[in-house]
Amino acid sequence: MTRPEAIRTFLIADIRGFTRFTAEHGDEAAARLATKFADIAAKAVEGRDGTLVEVRGDEALAVFDSARQALRAAVELQSIFHNETGTDPSVPLAVGIGLDAGEAVAVGDGYRGAALNVAARLCALAAGGEIVASENLVHLAGAVPGIAFVELGPRELKGLKQAVTAVRVEATDASLSAERPAAPIRVVLADDAVLLREALAAGLKAAGFEVVGQASDVAGLLSLVETRTPDVAVVDVRMPPTHTTEGLEAAREIRRRHPGIAILVLSQYVETRYAIDLIRDGPSGVGYLLKDRVTRLEDLSDAVRRVAAGGSVIDPEVVGRLLGRPRRHSPLDELTPREREILGLMAEGRSNQGIADQLVLELKTVEGHVGQIFSKLGLEQSTGEHRRVLAVLLMLRDE
Predict the structure, then answer these.
(1) Distance between first and last Cα of the chain
(2) Band of the pLDDT at 187, cuts 50, 70, 90?
(3) What pLDDT band is residue 388 in, cutting at 50, 70 and 90?
(4) For the chain, percent helix, then strand, then coil, each to nearest 5?
(5) How far is it, in rounded angstroms, from Cα 322 to Cα 344?
(6) Cα separation values, 89 from 21, 86, 95, 296, Å
(7) Helix (H), strand (E) at residue 314
(8) Residue 70 — left, alpha, or beta (φ > 0 → left; ψ -120 to 50 → alpha)?
(9) Dist. CA 348–CA 339, nearest whole Å
């Protein structure tokens, strides 16, 4: 029997590394872990007035009438799982969770609807110990005490025609937060300058990244991407044999084949055309930095983390040239000097809090300026795409 459509929130949780755990510890240990996981999921979901629809080994599906209760259940599920397994060294696992809300039809013992599909894709996107929700769900929930949201930007999800703006859900209440760290960001490096490449690799490893491969040419880079499945590819613009744009073209090819892999392109010179071409192809999860800047470990680490999270990063020198160049009349002409300054920092990939820290302003002041920028550029709240990205694209549009 099919019941009427209603707005529901779906939560999908998955134990990361469960297959490997089964291979290493055997079916009996895996069955015990699956049973514990089912009990934990039931405790967290039913404690927040949700319904545990199904548990299949390492994956659980739950549905809620309340978006807020679903978010609380997600945080509590992770916390309980960590508390009940984290002291066991034989279970070095964490749970990834995805959530979305929308109209869905209850059919028999299950559900059908786009929100269920989005929740599944966001669950696949989440790392171990991470909760990723749709922007739609976060807007529906509003402010939730003890929980903070970090916008990750629009993400292309398998099987979906339109990008979904993803948001990381974090517990600000220490009693709810699972302390198990997320898996390190996996990086491949491509640069024919061996000494620079080795220095970058050493710096990234020291900062907690996992460097899973290095290449000196495009063929080696593309092979690494296919076999090592990195989160981020760091690529020099100029590579053999001609040292012109081979690296940039390889970056585009990686984005075409693997849209989920973030790209950080490095250049010896300020070449605004390359930055514009790269960002125009798709601004989510891409960056363009000068080599002088990435030799500073903090700048390199920050850029890799930002693009891995789905943001865009443009070198400040490139931003300065783009904002300062002459152009025909555009909506950008309506911005005040302060608003243009803030737009430039947005283009560098900085959050509102980061901009406030840089300019020594109150966060509310920055939020007010950002709102004015969106309004003057015609980017209203109803815009389907990520407004920060669209604002940066407007800045890049006229070369």
Answers:
(1) 58
(2) very high
(3) low
(4) 45, 25, 30
(5) 9
(6) 12, 7, 16, 36
(7) strand 312-314
(8) alpha
(9) 14
